[in-house]
Amino acid sequence: MKMLRNSLLLVLAAVIFGCGASQKVKEPNAELDRMMEQKAFEISIRSAEPQLTQAMGQIANSGIMQPGNTIGRIDVAGSGYFIKIEGDSVSADLPYYGERQMGGGYNSDSGIKFDGIGKNLEITKDDLKQSYTLGFSIASNSENYIVRIEVGNNMTSTSNIRSSHRNRIRYSGDVEALAKRPHSK
Q1: Which of 109, 117, 39, 119 is nearest to 81 (CA)?
Q2: Could you read off the pLDDT of 9-57 as tens digits, one per residue?
Q3: pLDDT tier, 69 (very low <50, low <70, confident <90, very high otherwise)
Q4: Is this prediction's pTM over 0.70?
Q5: If you write DSSP's letter for every residue of the chain in order, what string do you get?
Q6: 140-176 exposure pattern, b = at least 16 Cβ within 10 A, e = fewer
Q7: Which of these ranges, 55-64, 91-100, 122-131, 139-148, has the smallest mean pLDDT?
Q8: How many CB atoms are located within 10 Å of the residue 42 CB?
Q9: Residue 68: phi, psi to the nearest 5?
Q10: C-alpha pair distances (Å), 37 with each of 33, 75, 88, 116, 182
């Protein structure tokens, strides 16, 4: 009986302490807070993660992917791709891997490029995670984009882009203040 009671107490203690640790508030990142407040940062893109479709699966099975890449994650680090926020201005030069649903004639750029004022640019902070979510929409030529960016306390980001003409795509990258970065692409 005494052994059963001790075992129950041990399990109860493990549950109580285990649940309490998951709600720990992360330490604030002053540099990240300053960049978001000033709306002055650039994301260097490390990888592109296209939507997986049957057509993309056929490409993966063709053997044309570079070693180390999969159709779900394509390494583009060091290629100069970026998303930049400077005040209300947003710009991007991104590769696109995926299916185009309409538009895009001959001699058109196959990537995602935009430069202008982000419509409905909104930045919200998650105080528990000490992270930020940014959202805006922007038009470029005849294509419209809806952009949602998650910026973590560790200065990494995930950017989701939906287009009026293409399947969605996600990018992973590193966030830096504009003052620290040389002029990009």
Answers
A1: 109
A2: 565 566 666 555 455 667 889 999 999 999 999 999 999 999 877 777 7
A3: confident
A4: yes
A5: -HHHHHHHHHHHHHHHHHHHHTTPPPPP-HHHHHHHHHTEEEEEEEEEEEPP-HHHHHHHHHT-SPTT-BTTBEE-TTS--EEEEETTEEEEEE---S-B-S---TT---SEEEEEEPEEEEEEEETTTTEEEEEEEEEETTEEEEEEEEE-TTSEEEEEEEESSB--EEEEEEEEEGGGSPP--
A6: beebebbbebebbbebebebebebeebbebbbbbebb
A7: 55-64
A8: 20
A9: 90, -15
A10: 6, 30, 12, 20, 21
* Exposure string over 11-32, b if 16+ CB within 10 A, otherwise e: eeeeeeeeeeeeeeeeeebeeb
CA 81/CA 20 separation, integer angstroms: 41
Write down the residue that tokens 């649903």 correspond to.
Answer: 101
Q: Which amino acid is at 60?
A: A
State both tokens at 97.
């891997």
Residue type, 128: L
* Token digits of residue 16: 């109580």
